[in-house]
Design a protein that fits this description.
alpha/beta; seven-stranded parallel sheet
Length: about 270
């Protein structure tokens, strides 16, 4: 099968890092299946990239927090397309006191960040195995390297993504599939997030990269078959800090900084 007939799947592809990952892949002549929530103009994004880079790009609107939707989408892909790259980017977080979080808030993080990623990967591995070379890139977070107050469920879900990815890569080491996991820091993907990020201390701010910079690093290192990707020098230093600083000190410093997000929202 010709390369032009192969597709890259990207979830959460309508904005932010997901959209930038789509652009990076399109620059490399990769055909795209872009997955996003309804009413986020993912079909427009697909059309624009198709025209600009002379590729095939398809938009698919669905809510991946639904088990039924994940299953039906996977069946649609297997029935209609050959793929050699899966980028699990869709994810959600949030900042709040755990007691103030609703059951739906918590369920959404678990369903999207963990279940959808695992089951989509599980369903599509047989298709990926039919190609000469295939790649899986799972987007975790810098937050995966340690617990964090006021975000309790999100870092735990991203730690799961990290562990799952590294284990899967080891399991598939003798196959044609390379699995990478990326740990980006904060990214100002919209004005609201930019405002919240402005409340962080200078060290945390130093870990921020633009979505475009992050996407470029992730795609380049995934294609180089790097297992763990930490974009940016400051983020690498931050990862080292997670290892070297006592956990109690880290929890106190990060907790005070993250708590400011709640104050900003309440203001």
């Amino acid at each position: 099968m010709e390369q032009r007939e192969l597709f890259t799947i990207i979830t959460g592809a309508s904005k932010g890092l997901g959209k930038c990952l789509a652009i990076e892949c399109a620059k490399r002549g990769r055909n795209l299946i872009l997955i996003a929530l309804p009413f986020e103009n993912v079909n427009r994004t697909a059309m624009d990239l198709s025209k600009k880079f002379n590729i095939k790009a398809i938009g698919y609107e669905t809510d991946l927090t639904s088990n039924k939707n994940v299953d039906s989408m996977a069946k649609w892909i297997k029935l209609n397309y050959q793929i050699d790259m899966l980028i699990n980017n869709a994810g959600v977080g949030g900042t709040n006191y755990i007691e103030a979080a609703t059951e739906n808030d918590i369920s959404t993080i678990i369903q999207l960040n963990m279940r959808a990623l695992v089951f989509l990967t599980h369903q599509l591995l047989p298709v990926l195995k039919t190609q000469k070379k295939s790649y899986v890139l799972n987007i975790s977070s810098l937050a995966a390297f340690g617990p964090m107050a006021y975000k309790t469920v999100y870092p735990a879900s991203k730690a799961f993504v990290s562990s799952f990815s590294r284990g899967l890569n080891a399991e598939l080491k003798d196959t044609n599939i390379s699995v990478s996991v990326a740990h980006p820091g904060g990214m100002a993907t919209n004005p609201e997030i930019k405002e919240r990020m402005g409340k962080y201390n200078s060290f945390i701010k130093s870990t921020f990269l633009s979505p475009g910079e992050t996407a470029k690093i992730c795609i380049e290192q995934m294609l180089s078959e790097k297992t763990v990707i930490v974009p940016g020098f400051a983020n690498k230093i931050s990862r080292l800090g997670f290892k070297l600083f006592p956990e109690r000190l880290r929890l106190n410093i990060l907790g005070r900084s993250v708590k400011k997000e709640i104050i900003v929202k309440a203001a």
